[in-house]
Every structure is written in structure tokens, then in C-alpha cells.
Design brief:
The structure is a homodimer of 202-residue chains. By secondary structure, chain A is mostly helical. Helices cover 73% and strands 0% of the residues of chain A. At the A-B interface, helix 7, helix 8 and helix 9 of A face helix 7, helix 8 and helix 9 of B.
DNA sequence: CAGGAAATTGCCTAAAAGGCATCTTTGCTC
DNA sequence: GAGCAAAGATGCCTTTTAGGCAATTTCCTG
């Protein structure tokens, strides 16, 4: 078998800890959550929490790490003969569609997930951990792009980082836009601009 | 007056702490430096260190924060009628030329500065703080671009984040390239690709 | 089902984070 | 140039985090 009970349980614990961390932080505020509480919520000891994550911030960011890594996965899943940017668009779109299937059910914009995103964007103490998460995702993405295009050097990394940046900007704009705008629309617009070389719009 | 002795001294202390933090971390390794040591090195109390920075990592990243903020400054300093991307190229080039004038003298590639950069790129515990630094710089840059181009919405932020990403990729490539390559050349190449919309190279 | 690797846990020490009160220094006013 | 108010520096204190070490329990393999 690929991974026995052992590996699966470890993954479950990791996810349980991360969700517990996000939930508690959203409820009480980041600063009012002790890792002891998170561990208790997930049913493990404080010391075990520490075996999984180096810090409280990492635990909260873990969920976003997993989600972000999917972009590279999605990209690899696209047909190999599809043009790069077409595949990229599809991969990011799928990434953004994620959030419904968070922990089982599929109630639309998943309030829990959204609150978590807002938390991560607003709490300064979390930005570092989140940034590291995105850096990790960028590495994977760059590798996927290198494989797909057969390029090396700066190109794969440039594309990966630009995609990561785009994703961040789109997310921020989506959260901010007061007459709400659809993510798909924002994303499409942003990628159009990227592909056009970012000329100053008139 | 704009800033009295008070303000200037505060700035000096901040810089002294940051340099001390970098120097000690480079010498002994990040984990073997206590903030107490940094404070002592800079001639202030431990408690005062904490008034300046929230963490050891922040102190180390502070120098990079200041340096990164200069990109936006340089951009604002360019002639207003210069095309955006021309101005951007010039601003980043100047940013990269920085490092000689670190703390007074101007011995070429400033070993101290380079070692600091390597440290920041390699030590995981620092990546969060550094990422936050770049995020700050991105905000300033986006504002500068918005002012210069008279645009709003996602465009200024997209450009700012793409520039930040480019700078990061170029720096990484420059540090890694074994037959060393000039920063100017790498930067120029990267920006050419960005302006062309990142088509897959042949 | 026995041996061994891996994970969980408790215990312990060092270090970090940050509130609060006090003392100094700086900048401004008369 | 003396005095006053505000801002900064410092010391002290408590809570929380970080992580090493060893004992114990849980899963995998042969």
C-alpha cells in the first residue's frame, strides 16, 4: 500500500491541528490563542503540536500551504500539449475554486475558509508564515513549469513568481472590492495584463 | 525642524541594532545569537531592543526593509515624463547598485552585505521577516506606480508585485550562477521577458 | 507475533514576548 | 538659561514559546 495507517493518521493530525488553529484564531483573535488550546482542540498533547509545527503561525498557514501546492499539481495535470499560459489559467482557476471542499461539505463560499483568509491577510504576525507558504508553492510551481516547458534558468522561476504575485493581487482585490467582483473576472483581467507585458492602461 | 536630534538618534540606534544583528548572525549562525547579545553590541539594553523590533528576525530584516524601500524612492525620483518601464529599470538598477554605501565606506561588493543577503536567503527562520519586508516595499512601490501612471485598481499592484518577484528571482540567480553573471545583465534579461509577456522561450 | 522503527508524550531549561512603572533625555517655552 | 512636558530607555516581572531528552505507546515488517 502507498501509505499505511501511520502516514494517514499523521496527515489527519496535521490537518486537524491546522483547522483548529484557524478556527480558534478566527473566534478569539490570533493573540488570544495559545498553542496549548490548539493542541487540546485537536486532541493531542502540546508537545506533539510542536512536533508538527515550529510555531503557531505555521499551523495556521499550513492549510494555505496545502492549498497553494495544488496549483503546481493542477498544472501538472493539464494536457502536456496545452500552451503554457492556457494551462496556467486553468490551474489557477481551479485553485480559486477551492474552498468549498475544505473539510467535507460544500456550502458555497465557505465562511470558515474566507474568515481564515481574511485573518491571514490582516494579522501581521501571520504574514511571514503565509509568505513562506507561498514561497514553497512557488518552488513547486517553478519545477512544474520547468518540466512542462523544458526550460531552465530564470524563466520557470520568473513565471512561477509572477503567477504567485498575480494570485496574491487578485485575492486582495477580490477581498477588497466593494461592489463584489467575481474572482474569475479579476483573474482573467490580471492574466491578460501579464501576458500583454503590463503596458500602462489608458 | 524636520527631525531633531531625537529622531536622528532613534534612526541611528535602529540601524546599529540591525547591523549588529546581521554581523553576529553571520559570524555565529542565526541560532547562536541572543537578542541580548545584539543589544549589547549596539550599546542599548535588552528591553530597548524590544522597543525597536518585535523579534530577532525583524532586526535582521530591517536593513533589507530600508534598502527595498529605496526602489519606490528611486522611482519617484525619475522624471515624470519617462515611460514607466524605463523608469522602473533605472530604479531597480540603482537598487542593485546599493550595498557599497552600506555603512560609510565603499569597498566593492561589500562582503558584509553579501553575507547578510546569503544569510537571509538561507535561514528559514528569516524568510518570514524578509518576506514581510518585501511586502512593505511592494506597498510603497505600488503607491509610487499609481501616482506616476495615474492608474488605480489592480494595475499598480500587479506591476509592483511583478517587479518585486523579478528582483527576487534575479537576486537568487545571481547568487547561484556559478560562472558569475552580472546583475545588470540578469536584470535586463528578466525585465525583457516580463515586458514581452513571458512567452515560452525557444 | 516478535522485533524494531516511528510517533506521542511528559519533563525540563533557555529564551523570547511584552506589560508596567521609573528614570533620563530632548525639545520647547517663557 | 531654567523649567516643564513628552518621548525614549531601562529594569523588573509574568506568561508563552522553543526545543532537547528519555520513556512509552503505536504501527509496520518479516
Amino acid at each position: 500500500m502507498a501509505d499505511g495507517l501511520r502516514e494517514r493518521k499523521k496527515q489527519e493530525t496535521r490537518i486537524a491541528l491546522s483547522w483548529a488553529a484557524v478556527r480558534l484564531a478566527v473566534e478569539r483573535g490570533y493573540g488570544n490563542v495559545r498553542i496549548e488550546d490548539i493542541a487540546a482542540e485537536a486532541g493531542v498533547s502540546l508537545r506533539t503540536f510542536r512536533n508538527y509545527f515550529d510555531s503557531k503561525a505555521d499551523a495556521i498557514a499550513a492549510r494555505e500551504v496545502d492549498r497553494s501546492l495544488r496549483i503546481a499539481e493542477e498544472l501538472r495535470a493539464r494536457p502536456a500539449d496545452e500552451p503554457l499560459w492556457v494551462a496556467v489559467r486553468a490551474a489557477i482557476e481551479k485553485h480559486f475554486a477551492l474552498g468549498e471542499e475544505g473539510h467535507g461539505g460544500q456550502r458555497p463560499p465557505d465562511e470558515q475558509w474566507l474568515a481564515g483568509i481574511r485573518l491571514m491577510m490582516s494579522e501581521p504576525a501571520l504574514q511571514g508564515a503565509v509568505a513562506r507558504a507561498y514561497a514553497r508553492a512557488g518552488d513547486e510551481l517553478a519545477a512544474a513549469i520547468a518540466d512542462r516547458t523544458g526550460t531552465s534558468g530564470m524563466y520557470p522561476r520568473l513565471v512561477a513568481e509572477v503567477i504567485a504575485a498575480t494570485r496574491g493581487v487578485v485575492t486582495a482585490e477580490w477581498l477588497r472590492a466593494d461592489p463584489p467582483r467575481s474572482i474569475a473576472e479579476l483573474l482573467s483581467s490580471a492574466l491578460d495584463q501579464i501576458e500583454a507585458g503590463l503596458p500602462v492602461p489608458e
